[in-house]
Amino acid sequence: MESPKEHCIGSSLSVQELAKEPMLLIPQRYVCFDEDLSIRSHGSSLPTIPTIDMDQLVSGETTDLELEKLHLVCKDWGIFQLVNHGVSSLVVEKLKNEVQEFYNLPLEEKMRYKIKAGDVEGYGQTILKNENQTVDWADRFYMITNPVTRRKAHLLPELPSSLRETLESYMSELQKLAMTLLGLMLKALKIDKGEMEAMFEDGMQAVRMTYYPPCPQPKKVMGLTPHSDATGITILLQVNGVQGFQVKRDGIWIPVNILPDAFVVNVGDVLEIFSNGLYKSIEHRATVNSEKERISLAMFFNPKFQSEVGPSATLLDPQNPPLFKRVGMEKYVSDFFSRKLDGKSFLERMRIAENGVDDTI
Ligand SMILES: O=C(O)CCC(=O)C(=O)O
Ligand SMILES: [Fe+2]
Question: Is the ipTM of this complex over 0.95?
Answer without folding.
Answer: yes
